[in-house]
Amino acid sequence: MIVSTKGRYALRVMLELARYENEGYISLKSIAERQNISMKYLESIVSTLTKASYVRSMRGKEGGYCLSRPASSYTIGSILKLTEGSLSPVSCIECGQSICEKADSCLTLPIWKHLDTMIDEYLESVTLEDLLKQKIAAD
């Protein structure tokens, strides 16, 4: 599993909105400048987040984007799944199904399924708030 730039940037955007959630709507321009993300790419990412109701938008001079819910209600797993589609370590178990024709006799399948479960459980246990409050060990 390699998390794409889109997934990593989506996390950075969501963290930026969480960091300033008490300040109202945040402009894309300020997010782009603080996070060093191109406006065009940022617009694509925010469009995905808006369509999924992760963020709200408001037009106008005081407009911009803000989180739709508290930072504590967004898991890192949910954000990455939204932008990446799948976090499975191998393609044969994407979407929770063993799609390989050799699944019945595959000796490596159990390890991939276990790794997939571990990744999912870990990323679903970490919230935006956890990251903001630095509750995650870097070891």
Structure report:
This protein has 139 residues and is mainly α. It has two domains: 5-67, Winged helix-like DNA-binding domain superfamily/Winged helix DNA-binding domain (Arc Repressor Mutant, subunit A), CATH 1.10.10; 71-77 and 87-132, no CATH class. Helices cover 48% and strands 6% of the residues. It contains six helices and two strands. The protein has helices spanning 5-19, 28-35, 39-51, 76-84, 109-125, 128-132, and strands at 55-58, 64-67. A two-stranded antiparallel ribbon has the order 1-2. The two termini are 19 Å apart.
List the helices and strands and how they pair.
Layout: H1 5-19, H2 28-35, H3 39-51, E1 55-58, E2 64-67, H4 76-84, H5 109-125, H6 128-132
How does the major sheet shape up? Answer: 2 strands, antiparallel
Uncertain parts: none
For CATH, the homologous superfamily of the largest domain is named as: Winged helix-like DNA-binding domain superfamily/Winged helix DNA-binding domain
Report mean pLDDT, rounded to a whole number.
90
